[in-house]
């Protein structure tokens, strides 16, 4: 299945958002996620299934003003 | 002065962006004795652990964090970013930025009020980055904000307090609301001026991060903020248009 992760096309084997984070090697990294523009809390990542063409955003802590 | 019920250890809020290195950032936060540091959320390349290293550095500094929604241009973007920030940084504080104009990074006050209302209803403690507009300030208060953060000048411009009259009016209209000058401050003297006007805190980033010696500049800002705060409490004299001799006139010799 092909989806977009931070606007980059990516073929993935998993069906869930939690599976995607594992597949990409995020492990226990502190990140926040959104799918198709909507926030997905960490607790819902395991049950959220990704559809073909889903737009996933994975954001990490960063410097800010 | 309490910010959503919290007493800050200092009135200097410091941004964490644009420092030459993580070490210099840490040195600057310590030299500033910052009461709050601002942070954000961004994409990072897969496999990079830069975000995790940054977060670990910030946690070790032990300073309360204020996440921002920098770069958001719509209510939806800002609200979604705020939710993501609340989860990652484990705080319900949010520096709400909704940018309306790209050249000046001027806040979109209409979208700001709407986003502030949605977030306040959802339990966020909103620190709105705003213009010094009095009516906008009133609307933000009604939307649930208990802190206001007017700009001094456009973000990163270093021009200081562009509209002293407007900032003074805001202070006068909202005597009991914590007010923070956010953005545009370039020099410690600008920060001191904001505090002398009765502002409760200032938020600085570029002026420290882009100085030749950021940690030393951070110390200068700490001293300026403290000086301004004490000066305000000491009740400054009124300005006069004409000179008034300070040395007593009485007893002056006649030598002509």
From TrEMBL, chain A:
CDD domains: Ubl_ThiS
A Pfam family annotated for this UniProt entry: ThiS
Matching SUPFAM superfamilies: MoaD/ThiS (SSF54285)
Highest taxon listed in the record's lineage: Bacteria
Signal sequence, start to end: none
Listed InterPro entries: Beta-grasp_dom_sf (IPR012675), Mopterin_synth/thiamin_S_b (IPR016155), Thi_S (IPR010035), ThiS/MoaD-like (IPR003749)
Protein name per its UniProtKB record: Sulfur carrier protein ThiS
Organism of this sequence: Gluconacetobacter aggeris
UniProtKB/TrEMBL annotation, chain B:
Pathway: Cofactor biosynthesis; thiamine diphosphate biosynthesis
Annotated localization: Cytoplasm
Database matches in Gene3D superfamilies: Aldolase class I
Top-level enzyme category: transferase
EC annotation from Swiss-Prot or TrEMBL: 2.8.1.10
Cross-referenced InterPro entries: Aldolase_TIM (IPR013785), Thiazole_synthase_ThiG (IPR033983), ThiG (IPR008867)
Main location: cytoplasm
Pfam families: ThiG (PF05690)
Reactions catalysed according to its record: [ThiS sulfur-carrier protein]-C-terminal-Gly-aminoethanethioate + 2-iminoacetate + 1-deoxy-D-xylulose 5-phosphate = [ThiS sulfur-carrier protein]-C-terminal Gly-Gly + 2-[(2R,5Z)-2-carboxy-4-methylthiazol-5(2H)-ylidene]ethyl phosphate + 2 H2O + H(+)
Gene Ontology MF term list: thiazole synthase activity
Active site, per annotation: 95 (schiff-base intermediate with dxp)
Binding, 1-deoxy-D-xylulose 5-phosphate: 156, 183-184, 205-206
GO biological process, one term: thiamine diphosphate biosynthetic process
Keyword list, A-Z: Cytoplasm, Schiff base, Thiamine biosynthesis, Transferase
Entry coiled-coil feature ranges: none
Domain spans labelled Thiazole synthase ThiG: 4-248
Top-rank taxon, per record: Bacteria
Cellular component, GO annotation: cytoplasm
Family assignment from sequence similarity: Belongs to the ThiG family.
Function: Catalyzes the rearrangement of 1-deoxy-D-xylulose 5-phosphate (DXP) to produce the thiazole phosphate moiety of thiamine. Sulfur is provided by the thiocarboxylate moiety of the carrier protein ThiS. In vitro, sulfur can be provided by H(2)S.
Oligomeric form and interacting partners: Homotetramer. Forms heterodimers with either ThiH or ThiS.
Name of the protein: Thiazole synthase
């Amino acid at each position: 299945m092909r989806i977009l992760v931070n606007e980059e096309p990516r073929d993935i084997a998993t069906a869930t958002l939690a599976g995607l984070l594992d597949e990409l090697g995020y492990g226990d990294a502190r990140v926040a996620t959104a799918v198709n523009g909507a926030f997905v809390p960490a607790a819902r990542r395991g049950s959220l299934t990704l559809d073909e063409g889903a737009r996933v955003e994975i954001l990490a802590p960063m410097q800010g003003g | 002065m309490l910010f959503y019920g919290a007493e800050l250890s200092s009135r200097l809020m410091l941004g964490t962006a644009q420092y030459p290195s993580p070490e210099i950032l840490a040195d600057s936060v310590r030299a500033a004795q910052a009461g709050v540091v601002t942070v954000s959320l961004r994409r990072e390349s897969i496999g990079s652990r830069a975000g995790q290293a940054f977060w670990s550095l910030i946690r070790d500094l032990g300073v309360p964090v204020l996440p921002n929604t920098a770069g958001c241009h719509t209510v939806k973007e800002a609200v979604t970013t705020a939710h993501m920030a609340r989860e990652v940084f484990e705080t319900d504080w949010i520096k709400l930025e909704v940018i309306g104009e790209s050249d000046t990074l001027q806040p979109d006050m209409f979208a700001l009020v709407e986003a502030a209302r949605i977030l306040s209803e959802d339990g966020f403690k909103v620190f709105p980055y705003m213009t010094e507009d009095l009516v906008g300030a009133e609307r933000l208060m009604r939307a649930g904000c208990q802190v206001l953060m007017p700009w001094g000048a456009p973000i990163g411009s270093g021009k200081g307090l562009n509209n002293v009259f407007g900032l003074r009016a805001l202070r006068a209209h909202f005597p009991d609301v914590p007010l923070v000058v956010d953005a545009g401050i370039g020099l410690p003297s600008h920060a001191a001026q904001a505090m002398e006007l009765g502002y409760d805190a200032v938020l600085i980033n570029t002026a420290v991060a882009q100085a030749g010696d950021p940690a030393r500049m951070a110390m200068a800002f700490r001293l300026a903020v403290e000086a301004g705060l004490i000066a305000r409490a000491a009740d400054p004299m009124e300005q006069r248009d004409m000179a008034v001799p300070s040395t007593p006139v009485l007893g002056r010799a006649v030598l002509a």
